[in-house]
Design brief:
alpha+beta; three-stranded antiparallel sheet; about 20% strand
């Protein structure tokens, strides 16, 4: 579940990333004040993981989502203030990125398993969002090629390759920034807490990651939630 917007007085449009069909928009009943309506709204919160039977009607632009059930129950993501901020960022990021994504069960598994790690963690890891963005790079098909790294090389963000001389544009990493990539590319949502960074380093890494995604997926550079994380993990 990645987004919910009002469609009419009776229906909303839920945007979901499904395991088998990729991104889909579906009609759901609008929230009501009844107990049943409140329960339905809880199942359709951002980043909810649900299961449902959907009858695909090729003649309709919007399919109807009926009787969604929680597939995973988050016990801490919505209640821990720091995890909630991370979830806000992930929801906004995924809503933008998944416009470009094809159906990919492995990507769906990566997202859900990462959220499970965040929910299960005893505390919110200040590196989690960075690990998630780095872990997503292979699924996005834009992992930088740093196999031949040596001191003094630049990274050209546009083609993800190392360069001896500075690329003649601003979408690049300096040799100092590039030297951090061999370590950063080993971060995963599972081991993120082992990597030590201060607030200034996290801000730089997040800014460069968002720039890298924006180079390859236009529109990704206008997200608002990264600024919240910059302040939170300062």
């Amino acid at each position: 579940m990645i987004g919910l917007v009002k469609h009419s007085d009776r229906h909303n449009v839920a945007t979901l990333f499904t395991r088998e069909r990729g991104r889909m928009a579906m009609l759901v009943p609008a929230a009501s004040k009844s107990r049943q309506g409140a329960a339905r709204s809880a199942r359709l919160m951002p980043l909810s993981v649900i299961s449902a039977d959907v009858r695909i009607d090729a003649t309709r632009e919007l399919q109807t989502l009926r009787s969604p059930q929680r597939l995973r129950v988050w016990r801490d993501i919505y209640f821990n203030p720091v995890k909630s901020a991370l979830a806000l960022f992930l929801s906004e990021f995924l809503n933008a990125y998944l416009r470009y994504a094809e159906s990919d069960p492995r990507l769906w598994d990566f997202i859900v398993n990462s959220l499970q790690l965040l929910d299960d963690a005893p505390g919110a890891d200040a590196n989690f969002h960075l690990a998630f963005l780095i872990g997503l790079l292979p699924y996005a098909g834009i992992s930088p090629d740093i196999a031949g790294w040596r001191p003094g090389l630049w990274l050209d963000m546009r083609d993800g390759t190392l360069k001896t001389f500075a690329p003649l544009h601003r979408d690049r990493l300096t040799p100092e920034e590039t030297s951090a990539l061999p370590a950063l590319m080993r971060i995963t949502p599972r081991n993120a807490s082992r990597f030590k960074m201060n607030g200034a380093q996290r801000r730089i890494v997040l800014a460069r990651l968002m720039q890298y995604y924006a180079v390859h997926f236009p529109g990704m550079g206008s997200l608002k939630s990264p600024e919240i994380l910059r302040e939170l993990f300062n």
